[in-house]
Amino acid sequence: MNNLRILVINGPNINMLGIREKDIYGKTDYSDLVAFIEAQAAKMGIKADCFQSNHEGDLVDAIQKAFGKYDGIVINPAAYTHTSIAILDALKAVDLPAVEVHLSDISQREDFRQISYAGRACEKTYMGLGFEGYKKALEYLKEGLSK
User: Fold this and answer.
1) Do residues 91 and 109 make contact, with C-beta atoms less than 8 angstroms apart?
2) What does the pLDDT look like over 94-112, one tens digit per residue?
3) Cα end-to-end span (Å), the chain
4) Which of 10, 42, 49, 75 has the fewest CB atoms within 10 Å, i.e. the most exposed one?
5) Which band of pLDDT confidence, cut at 50, 70 and 90, is reported for residue 72?
């Protein structure tokens, strides 16, 4: 499949990369993340559009608007991973191939981070790989959608 379009969604506080909890998230900022995603996508021949919001409803709206416009979704729901059934339901509703990404390894963090609602609607999850997780998610979607 040529001209793949992937929507990359980032949830709350991802816009604060480089400022928040540098020991967990590093010193690079959100603009670095977007540049990394766009560069990796371009190398793969994918059109990736990045969207970030701190608001759950905006994330749900972005997922819904992806229907009929994008071939797949990469999503880092951030803190909403563990709380948002609305994001889960939106992912299920649009039924696009989706991959969950987390910069940190949430399986090694606080107890409340052990549940991923969004992940239940995703084909795969990459965590603890930093920016590289987004690259792996794009590669996974490209491979799956090219079949």
Assistant:
1) no
2) 999 999 999 988 777 667 6
3) 8
4) 42
5) very high
Q: Residues with Cβ < 8 Å from 39, sequence gap 6 or more?
A: none
- Give whole-number Cα distances, 88 to 4, 25, 77, 135, in Å: 23, 24, 10, 22
What is the rounded distance in angstroms from the CA atom of residue 74 to the CA atom of residue 137? 7
The catalytically annotated residue of 30, 70, 80, 102 is 102
Give the pLDDT confidence score for residue 2 in this predicted structure: 59
* 140 carries an active-site annotation: no
User: Are the C-beta atoms of residues 75 and 118 closer than 8 Å to each other?
Assistant: yes
Listed residue (20, 4, 22, 1) closest to 12, CA to CA: 20
Return the pLDDT at 95.
96
Could you tell me whether strands 98-102 and 72-76 are parallel, antiparallel, or unpaired per DSSP bridges? parallel
Q: How many domains does the chain have?
A: 1
Q: What is the CATH number of the domain that holds 26?
A: 3.40.50.9100
Element (H, E) at 51: strand 47-52
- The answer to whether 126 is a known catalytic residue is no
- In the numeric block, the tokens 């590289």 are attached to 132
Query: Which residue range forms the structural domain that includes residue 35?
Result: 5-145
